[in-house]
Amino acid sequence: MFYRLLIYIPIIVLLVLIQSTTVRIFPNIHYQPDLITIAIVYLAHKEGKVAGQSTGFFSGILEDVLGLGPFGFHTLVRTVMGYTIGFTTNWRVTDSPLVALVLVVLGIVIQYFLYLLIGTVFSYPGIVISTFSLQSVWGALLTILFTPICFSFLSLLPFKRSSDKNMLERLKN
Length: 173
Known about the structure:
Blueprint: H1 2-21, H2 35-47, H3 49-65, H4 73-85, H5 97-121, H6 125-131, H7 134-154, H8 162-172
C-alpha cells in the first residue's frame, strides 16, 4: 500500500494543479470537467475504501489550501465520496467503460448531495445555488465525457485491479 501511495500523491497534486489553473475547455465560458473526482472514483474502485478516503482527503486538503471554498469543505466532500465509492471494490463487474461511467455518475451524485447538505446546514446559499447552476450541469456532463479517457490513462498505472482480485478469488474456490 505504501508503494502505491507514493504513486497517488503526485497524481493527485498534478490533477489539483491542473484543475485549479488550466482546465478551461471554452475560453469565455467557465465549464470544466472535474478530473479530481474521476481520479478519486478510479482509485476508490480499484483499491478500496481506505485508498478512496485517503486520496479524497488529500485532494480536498489541497483544494482547500488553494482557497477553492470554505476550509474543510472539499476535504469533507471528497473524503466521503472516496470512502463511499470504495464499497464498489468487491463488486464482481468487468472494467468496462459503462461501469466507469456509472461509478463517476454515482460520485457526482454523492458530491452534489453533500454540497446541498452542507450548504443548507451551514447556511451557504452560494453553494446551494451553484449546485443547480448551468455551470455545474455542464461541468458534470464534461466530467462524464472525460471519464473513459481518464480511466484509460489511469489504467496504465500500477494499481490493483478489482477484476484481478475477483479472478484470484474464483480460482481459490
